[in-house]
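forwarding from the other thread:

> can someone predict this with 5-amino-5-deoxy-1-O-phosphono-D-mannitol?

sure thing
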Amino acid sequence: MCGIVGAIAQRNVSQILLEGLSRLEYRGYDSAGICTIDKNELNCIKTTGKVKNLKEAVKEKGCLGTIGIAHTRWATHGVPSEVNAHPHICENLALVHNGIIENFAELKEQLIALGYNFKSQTDTEVLVCLIHHHLQSSDNLLQAFKAALNEVKGSFGLALIDKNDSNTLYAARSGSPLIIGLGIGENFIASDTLALLPVTRRFIYLEENEIAVITTESVNVYDLDGNKIEKTAVESDLDTESISKGRYRHYMQKEIFEQPQSLQNTLLGRLRGDDISTETIVGSDENSFKDIEAIQIVACGTSYHAGLVGRYWLEELTGIPTNVEIASEYRYRKAVVRKNSLFITISQSGETADTLASLRLSKEQNYSKSLCICNVNGSSLVRESDFTLFTKAGAEIGVASTKAFTTQLLSLLILALILGKQKGTISAEQNHEIMENIRKLPNLSQEFLECDSQISKLAEEFSGKHHCLFLGRGVMFPIALEGALKLKEISYIHAEGYAAGELKHGPIALIDKEMPVVVVAPDNSLMDKLISNVEEVRARGALLYIFISKDAHIKQDEQTRKLALPDCPEILQPILFTIPLQLLAYHCAVINGTDVDQPRNLAKSVTVE
Ligand code: M6R
């Protein structure tokens, strides 16, 4: 979702700001803007569309200054347009904003009554005018900034400059992530560390309701009452390599092919013989989960699908009743919380608004502990959970989640083993067998990637379709859901995932020659049941794409396209059978000519409700 970059230095900052915006493009946006202070004047340039349009405008018009702020906007209030793009200006002040000001309409009315005029439809313009209004009766901008923030309801990550003071950059956060990058004789802000990697690796994370006052030499952080807060800087371990496409055409393609390495990284340093080291779950020890009697998993999108798979493993290996729910639903429901319940969130970004709100809600409920499965160190979920299991997928830039998902699945399997061991529900033999299988996973994932060229051929026929069903049974049902989500989000082909046994209760009415059906069919204990469901579909004329273990038997005819996949242990099937589905979605999107890495209307990290 929207991206923020800010900089204060002794050199011209516009290239740093524009490069930062380019690095935030993956988050999804529809317009962009930049504002520097040049000779005590605000120099603001805004464009719709891609950051390259802004770069061209900056080249043409010029944009100098040693202090500046920049933004990519994903429209919430008002259509994508130059007028609604950020920064928003009120007299001497310029502001960029991520998040939503919920009471903006009533504040706007009050400000109109005070004589303020508005050009845009945005909540952000209201906020910058509110700060300006408070500045008229305050000693300084910090005081006015605090006063305004105390009046607003909603979420924000903010960067603010004043043309009358080119030595100070202001930032604030509540519900929308913001980090400060520390340089030598220069400092930066951004909504994501990736934006600043070319200029620094040292970061301070702003917490909820904190304001930062930043100069070239200093960073001071305050709470909304004006109390100073001591902050510690942390070093990022992300490398710049991880944010280049390398030899691949798209980030998504690169991230699919990185899966053997990212799965290896998830395991790295964690397996000790048949044991998993206690450091694997940050904050835990060998007794942390002994008393757990129930589990609630909450997540969104692909991460929710990972949770659905995780339930099968957690219940099977630990005997702990496990519930899985979409975060945007959980947060508005009065959940019954059982004694000694563990609250688990799953998130690639660690910043998804609904997941974070659910975690915060869980603290008011009767949960005994919280654990997050997350890919981003320093993210809000990580900082606010009791325990963290890092997925270690590495930076994921493509909007469609791929390596984040398979490493989430592996993390959930590891979690089930840890809990099973602590609860004494898993035998030594079973544990040994699963550990041996887990070790084979990176190599097996490499073997599964070898189906790429076959899938690209299948995609040629498939990509012309307008609708599609994905079927799976048991633990492969959530994988069918994930396959359908992948296809629809990047190729724009309408796709739905179904539990194969559910088909005859309604969706079978849709089956005809124009409705391809993808069947996720690894050789496992539910294979026979699945084959019966396949026959029901075949009998109604559907074109079948069956992704099946190579030695499993399936009737072949002109209606059937069979993709034979390597044999693999049953416990690993959900992880490995995801890979061909990712490739199918990828190749269909390429053939359909969509924007694979930044599909329309989507944002990588959904930080607003
Ligand atoms: O960062 P998170 O894992 O919390 O994000 C959750 C969803 O927004 C995300 O998985 C989304 O569904 C992806 N676009 C799926 O590819």
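The pocket of 5-amino-5-deoxy-1-O-phosphono-D-mannitol is lined by residues 300-303, 347-349, 352, 355, 399-401, 489, 605-606 (CB under 6 Å). thats all i got for now
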